[in-house]
Each structure stands twice: as C-alpha cells, then as structure tokens.
Specification:
alpha/beta; 497 residues; 8-stranded mixed β-sheet; Flavin_mOase-like; single chain; 31% helix; binds 3-acetylpyridine adenine dinucleotide; FAD/NAD-bd_sf; flavin adenine dinucleotide binding; N,N-dimethylaniline monooxygenase activity; Cyclohexanone monooxygenase
C-alpha cells in the first residue's frame, strides 16, 4: 500500500544522508524524507559502538565545513563524541521532522510509467511504501557486516560478536577471547579487551602497517581559541587537508615516496614489542599504503602482553568450543570477536535497488564491476544518486570532504532539473565509461594495484572500484556543477536531449 509521494527520498541518516537533507532544505526542498533502520542520526558512527571506536582522521577535518565544532575534546574524536556531533547538527537544522527512523528499506524500484522510484520499507512490523521523483542512496559502503567464510561457525556454542554489531551488555572480564582480523576495527578493539580479558588469541592473516597515533586531549585554552579566533579552525583544517593530499599523491603516483611512512611504522613495531620473533610476525609483507595505513600506540604493546597470543597460522575451522588452525592446534574460547569488515563490493543492498529493465545494481555490477558516473549516477538507474558511491572512497583523509563535494552536485542537479521541468535524468553509458576509464588509467601506477596486497578496495576482478585516486580537489572540481550534457533527460512532455 502506497502511503505517500515525495520529491526526494534519502536512505540513510549518517554523515552523507544527513548532509543531503540539510543541503536540500537550504535549497528550498521541503518535500523529502529520510529513511533509516536505526533510531537516530549517525549511521556508521551510531552503529559501531565497540570498545575503543574512534576516528583516525583528526577531529577538525572530520566534520562538515558548514558546522565546525570548536568544542572537540581531543585531537582525534571517539565514537560517542562524533555521534553526539552528528545529532547536534541534525537538531540545529531541524531535520528530525523529516526522518522516518526504524524504517528498513527492503526494495526500491524505478517505475518507467511514472518516472518515479517506488520504495518499500518495513517499520514496526508493518509493510509500507512511498514513491519519490529522486532517490538518494546514503547507506555508505561500511554498513553490511561481513562474516568470514570459515567452516564450522554454525557449530560454535559460545558467543560470536561482530565489531559493527557490538553487544554492549556482554562482560568480557576474565573471558577467553578470540579476535579474528587485524584491520582498522580490530586494532582499536584489541587494546581495550586486552585490559580486561583473561586470555586473548588474535588471529592475524595479514599484518597491517601501523603508525603512531598523535591523540591528545585539547586544553581549554585551545578550545577557547578554536571558538574565538576567526579562521583558526579553517586554517587547521586546511593544513591537515593539504598534508593528506601529499600522501594521496604518493599513493597514486609515486608509492616509493611513502618510505618515510614505512620507517615510522617499523619504529612503532620496535618501540611496542620486545620479542624479536613477534616483531617479525607483525611486520607487513606488502607496500605501505596498499591497505589502509592504521594508527595506534597501543596495538603492539597489547600483542606483547602475557595474556595475549598472536596466532599467524591460518584458521582451519571453528568447532563447538573454539578455533582450530591449519597446524592442528585447537584453542578453546568463550567468545569469538569477528572484526572482519564489511560487504563493500558485494553488498546485499545492491540486490534491493532495481533500475530499468528489471535489473538490480547487483545484476549490472556483476557484469562490469561497481561503476558510476562521478561516483554518483548510474546508467540504467534514472534519478538515483548514490552518496559515497563507487570510486569515491579514501584511505587517507576525511570522507566528509567527498560527501560535501557530492552534495554540491546533488543540489545543482535539483536546481537544474527543477528549472527545466525535467522528470527523468539518466547518465549516458558513454559518459560513465569515459569517467571510469580515466579512473582506471589514473590507478595504473598506484600502490593499491602494485603494492602486493589483497584488500577490500579490490573487487572480484582485481579492479579498484572503491577508491578515488589522486587529489580530492579534482573530485571537488568535477562535482561543482551538474553537467547536464552527460545525461539523457526527459521533461514531463518531451525528451530534451
Ligand atoms: O575491516 P577490514 P575493518 N580469516 O576489512 C581479516 C573503516 N574504519 O572493520 O587483511 C582471517 O579492514 C582481514 O584479513 P586480511 C576503514 O575504512 C575506520 O577493520 O584480509 N581473517 C582483516 O585483517 C576500514 O578500512 C575507522 O588478510 C580474516 C580484517 O579481517 C574499514 O572500516 C575505524 C578473514 C578485516 O579488516 C573496515 O575496517 C574502523 C578470514 N576468513 C574502521 N576475513 C576509523 O578510524 C577477514 N579477515 C575512521
């Protein structure tokens, strides 16, 4: 049963979906809704509540440019503070009235006859639907937890917790714990658990590069200065941003330039671990930057603790009581923490969005890999804009910068289509193909392709379809205005292009 029709439906109330709502409201769009399966704003910063959850981008850069926060308590923010920040911004812009929380979108399908999207969702057990002229996907790539494909998981009788679905009521004190994974989430969880557990086995498949994390609390005089000295926060943002762009250039064009980062990471290992064998076991075997460069001062000292064992033999299977490795060793545990990341290039969300000819994103991308034009619009999916879509991810700086670039594009799309009475906008295949060929060309010398690692940045074909290569200001320039000439459009009465 269709409940109502809106001009724009946004799925996801995290950084990107909330940003879209704010920018659209400022553009005078009042007829929009924001659907989210959770119960407040924050997206990944609402859902990831594991111990130690924090951002590895400095606080001043990791915020909206239009909502600077002089009150950050630390140089790197932790999850509760970012979650509070996002909700405070939503309150300030009065977005809550447009939010349909507790709404799980199950299916969205383009209807050619009406040039509208039909969106089915479930709320409090009720099946509902609405239609929208434009659908904005703001679910983000890190929303669907990935459980490892290891034999025997179903047989395990203890507790299993995924990093992104933490059980805050479970008491780890004194427990025997296994942690699978050594990515950005695990390196934050393990040091916290290491303080309370009885024993912890950390299963490392690939050792990551980890540099020190220069986190510290801000002094009250600094917060006073952020608030009262005009331009100070903007200048700090600019400084961090510019430094990160230099790193991006290294990753994309000259991976050897990242050698100082490797040296920093090796020094971090040397400082944090006494045992030479353990030092060797945690030293990565791929080029720095190929996988996300992590930041921690506590990871290595935690692995060096007496109650922690680093396990480097591969996992053979899970049993009723624990984990057996390829050398036949069985380690029994009370709880298994799976910090094994997300379905990024194979998200189940792709099955639920259906464009022209009844084809889903999963169908289309199964053939050619994850692709969009400017990370935003996809041939075969009219009037659908993805935020943080293909080729917009970053491993080195703030995603909020990319999101705000896309918001400029979204607002200009609305402005231009409204002004011309356009009801259907579909990017041409030729424009999309050219854009993606350029991306792949830029990537050819990058560390992500040549760095000798397997990573979630690569899809099943070995292509990097997640990341934006090179400078992010190029993306900002490309999304400054909505280039109608890359699209086929239809007004209510005639095809215009
Ligand atoms: O996930 P990951 P994550 N057997 O995919 C291992 C963001 N983030 O949740 O490297 C054994 O990076 C896997 O091993 P390998 C950030 O963008 C940001 O940690 O594939 N191990 C790896 O070690 C990040 O990149 C912050 O060999 C298995 C780990 O699990 C993204 O989220 C904080 C396995 C997965 O690492 C994802 O990070 C946290 C198996 N079968 C997260 N399967 C910030 O600070 C997987 N692994 C902003």
């Amino acid at each position: 049963m269709t409940t109502h029709d809106v001009e724009i439906a946004i799925i996801g109330a995290g950084f990107s979906g909330l940003g879209a709502a704010i920018k659209l409201a400022q553009e005078g769009v009042d007829d929009y809704v924001l659907l989210d399966r959770g119960h407040d704003f924050g997206g990944t910063w609402r859902d990831n509540v594991y111990p130690g959850a924090a951002c590895d981008v400095p606080s001043h850069l990791y915020s909206y440019s239009f909502a600077l926060n002089p009150e950050w308590s630390r140089s790197y923010s932790h999850q509760p503070e970012i979650h509070r920040y996002i909700n405070a911004v939503a309150d300030e812009h009065q977005i809550g009235d447009h939010a349909l929380f507790g709404s799980d979108v199950t299916h969205a399908e383009w209807d050619e006859a009406t040039s509208r999207w039909r969106i089915d969702y479930e709320r409090d057990g009720e099946k509902l639907s609405l239609t929208a002229r434009t659908l904005v996907g703001g679910v983000g790539p890190l929303c669907e937890p990935n459980l490892p494909d290891i034999d025997g998981f179903d047989d395990y009788r203890g507790k299993i917790v995924h990093s992104a679905r933490w059980d805050t009521d479970y008491d780890f004190t004194g427990k025997r714990v296994a942690v699978i994974g050594t990515g950005a989430s695990a390196i934050q969880i393990v040091p916290q658990l290491g303080k309370v557990v009885g024993h912890m086995d950390v299963y490392q498949r690939t050792a990551p590069w980890i540099i020190p994390r220069n986190e510290r609390p801000y002094l009250s005089v600094e917060n006073w200065a952020f608030k009262n000295i005009p331009g100070l926060q903007a200048a700090i943002r600019g400084g961090i941003y510019s430094f990160n762009e230099v790193v991006a250039a290294g990753m994309t064009y000259a991976p050897k330039a990242l050698k100082p980062v490797e040296a920093l990471s090796r020094a971090n290992i040397f400082r944090g671990i006494r045992d030479p064998e353990l030092r060797k076991a945690v030293t990565p075997k791929f080029a720095v930057g190929c996988k996300r460069i992590l930041k921690s001062n506590e990871w290595y000292p935690t692995l060096d603790q007496d109650n922690v064992e680093l396990v480097t033999d591969g996992i053979a299977r899970v049993t009723e009581t624990g984990i057996v490795t390829s050398d036949g060793t069985a380690r029994d545990v009370d709880v298994i923490v799976v910090a094994t990341g997300f379905h990024v290039t194979d998200s189940p969300v792709f099955d639920t969005i259906v464009g022209t000819d009844g084809k889903s994103l999963a169908d289309v991308w199964a053939v050619e890999g994850m692709q969009a034009y400017k990370g935003s619009f996809i041939n075969g999916f009219p009037n659908l804009m993805l935020l943080i879509g293909p080729s917009t991810g970053l491993g080195h700086t703030s995603m909020v910068y990319m999101i705000e670039s896309q918001l400029n594009y979204l607002v200009d799309y609305v402005r231009k289509t409204r002004a011309r009475g356009i009801v259907r906008t579909e990017v041409t295949k030729a424009a999309q193909d050219r854009f993606n060929a350029d991306i792949q060309h830029t990537l050819r010398n990058s560390v992500w392709i040549n760095g000798g690692c397997a990573s979630w940045y690569k899809d099943a074909n070995g292509n990097i379809t997640v990341l934006w290569p090179g400078f992010t200001f190029n993306f900002r320039n490309q999304t400054r205005s909505f280039d109608l000439d890359a699209y086929q459009t239809l007004t209510a009465d005639a095809v215009t292009t």
